[in-house]
Structure formats: structure tokens, C-alpha cells
Amino acid sequence: MGISDILFYVFAAMTLSCAALVIANPFSRNPVTSAMFLVLTIVSMAGLFVLLHAFFLAAVQILVYAGAVIVLFLFVIMLLDLKAEARRKIKFYGLAAGVISVGAIVAIFARNLRSTPLHALASPTAQGGTTALGLLLFRQYVLPFEVISVLLLVAMVGVILLSRKDSK
Amino acid sequence: MNWNFVIFSIVKIVIVIGVLQTLAAYAVLVERKISAWIQDRVGPNRVAPPFVKYIPLAGPVLTRMGIFQPLADGVKFILKEDFTPAGVRKAYFWLAPAISVIPSILVVAVIPFGSYMGHQKMVIADLNVGILYTFGIVSLGVYGIVLAGYAANSKYPFLGGIRSSAQMISYEISMGMSVIPVFLIAGSLNLSRVISWQAQHGWLLLYAPLSFIIFLVAGFAETNRLPFDLPEAETELVGGYHTEYSSMKFALFFLAEYSNMVAASGMITTLFFGGWTLPFWGLDQPAHTAWIGLAQVLVFLAKMAFIMTLFIWVRWMFPRFRYDQLMDLGWRRFVPLALANIVITAVVLWARS
How many Cα atoms occupy the beta-carbon half-sphere of B339 within 13 Å? Predict the structure, then answer.
């Protein structure tokens, strides 16, 4: 077992346990704690991307999600008064629905994994650089890429329109 | 496993962290001296261990320069009472100083501080996505401040934390976009290759002056230095996010600010001032002898010291921005300017190719 195998198990365990602690933390119902565990989840996922040689994806993962999106989460959590949220107990129906949906996803994954022969998984090559990704995005997938961009732009314009006070 | 690589990497990491922390400590002294000169004072000039004055010739000079002030400050910080206020959220109160220091140290890993010494490349990690790594790590620095403000459980630190989260995210955008023309021109995200491009064609400061200005100003905002030190604005927020901190925990915030400044200076030197190269005396080529390698490291440190002096000088020359002015500058001036800069650079490069 090489060092990258060990690192894979470390990062995978960290991702799963931190992700579980985001949604169901037995020690604290504090939303800030959940947000911080989400940061840890994302950072360990970036570690997994690095092990797959997807350096660009790893850097962008940390830059966008850990560095911006969750900071905004924190911003909102701190501005709103979430004391009621912190006191809320885990509800039975919510828990049951969550377990069922997670179980369904795991079942689908397990079935697919069993039907895929393991040797068919190619070992990753160093193709996660910016050049390869840029060529893919702007040649092969240029239409989906631009459509998603426009979608995000529409969402942003909508938010600005909704949050604007009437200037009249 | 390649033990040679492991050993040399550890040696480089230890040396770089040591130099970084020393530079951060002495930046405090330089800051106090420069502020004193600007305000027509003398600045620190007393601290010296008793044996120093008996050193012939150098002794009387050394006792007057305040050279031992950072050591005295360090001892003072360690010996002070580490007070934890009653109402704080303990876990975050302990975590926040550490979280703010770690990114400021990690950032320097990708900055090439020299060419070669022997067969060792003078950079800890020569990543292909170097600059993206830097921005990723820098963007984590905001958590230390936000959590410190949250953990203190009192109004002024809280306001400081809120301000910093908004400010640092806003300026990250213009900072990230300001360097895109640099990489369009140099043609690589790898910082070593950016430097070798500059060695051939001249400093990028001449090619992308607008990028430099935006990056510099955004750098002031990201390191929370005046005129953008709103998270800790003393006159409005007592001490901002670190109001409730004392002793070594406070010192860690202080250290983080100065390490960030050192890292930002290193980044500006690398991107716009040619890194470890000088256009004459053969210093623009990778070194073959250890002496030239050492000279290039010194060139890098000298350029960095120049930028750091600029950082310090600006702090004592300009008043603080108002919060709405800060946001206005970040979003309505710098973001469009940076976008225009990208488009113009791309069009010029396309027309010339």
C-alpha cells in the first residue's frame, strides 16, 4: 500500500464522517458548527481530487466552495438569529425519510459497482491541468457551458431584482 | 519513497517558515520605526540585552536601533496572562487564532524564492496550478477572523467578523480577476514559468500595470491593512475581531497579519517584479553555482522588503475608508476595471498573434 492509498482512505473517511456531522451532529446543533464541518468535507474532497491528479478541480473546489460559498453561509447564519434552530430536536419523520433516501442511493451505487468489473477502472493520468480542461470546455462542451453560465446570470439578475427596494 | 526529496523538502519548509516568521516579527519593528519617522518620533530605541553594549564598535549602534524589540515583544506575549472571557464559545475561541495563522504560512509554499542551489529547486512545491493554490489558501484565511468574531460572543468583534467576511470575499473577486491578464501574457499558471517569461521579456509590471494596481489594492484589503482595516477598525470597533483576545492568542492574529503581508509581498514580487531575477550580472538565468543561487534568494528578499515597506508606508499615510466606500470601490470600480483589463489584454494578444 503506497502513500497515496493511505491518503485516499484518510481523505475518504474524513469526507464521510465530516459530511455526516454536518447533518446530524450529536454534540452540537449549532448551525456554525455544521457549516465548519461542511468546510472540512469540502477540503477533504479536494484532497481526493488531488489524489486523482485533478489539481485544477481541487484548487477551484477550495477556492469557490470553502473560500466563498460557505463564508456566505456563515455570513447569513451570523446575521440571522438561529437560536431556535440550535434548540430544534431531530424529528422522527425527517430522520426516517433521510435514511430511506440515503439507503436508496447506496443501493443504486452498490448495484452499479457490482456489475462493473474492477479492472475496467483506468488508473488516473495527469490530465486534470488547466489546458486539458479548457480545451474540453471551450471546444467539446461549449454550448452546455455557455447555457449554464447564462442560467447563473439569470439567477443573479433575478436576485438583484427581487432584493432591490422600489426606487420610486 | 524518495528519501532525498523528503529530506530536502523538510529542510526547505523549516527554513522558509523560519525566515517568514522572522520577517513578520521584524516587519513589526520596521512598521514601528517608519510610523515613528512619519509622525516625527523616535520609535523603539531602548531594548537590548545587557551584554550587547560591551561589543566593540557595533555595540553602541545595536543598542540604539531597537533590533531586539521583536524578541522582547515575543517574550512579553508569552508571559502575559492568557485570559478567556466568561461568555465566549470555547472551541471556536481556541480554534480561531490557529485557523488564521495556518493559511498565511501555507501560502508561501508555491512562491519560488530562488532558482537553484546545488540541484535543489528553490521552491517548496512547484505546482502547475500555483496561483490557484494561492487563491484557494488565501480564501481560507477569512475563517479565522469570522470565527474569532463569532466566538467572542460580544458586539464589536461580531461586527468585525461580519465586515471581514463581506470585505474579503468582495476583494478576492477583483484580486482573482486582476491577475488573469498576467497569465494570459505569460501563458502559464506555474509561477516558475511566469518568472522565466519575465526574465526573457521584462517585468510584467510594464505589460500589465492596471493588473498591478488592482492586485496591490486588493492585497491591502485581503491582508486587512489600512486603508482597508475595517475588521479591526480601532476607532469604531474597539479592536474588532480580536478585542477579546489576549497574550499569545492575540499574538497569533498579529503574526497572521504580518505573515499575510510577507506572503502578499512575495506574490507581488513574483507576479510583477520578476521574482528572483535581475536583468543584469547574469542573475536572470537559473544559477549554476551556490553563490549565484544565494544572490538570487537575496534579490528576491530585497524586492520583497521593498514591497513590504510600501505596505507599511501606505498604512501611515492614508485614512481609513468608510464601509460603503470600500464596497463601492470593490464592486463598482475594480470588478468592471478588471473585466475590461482582461478583455483588452486578450484582444491585444489575439491581434498580435
Answer: 7
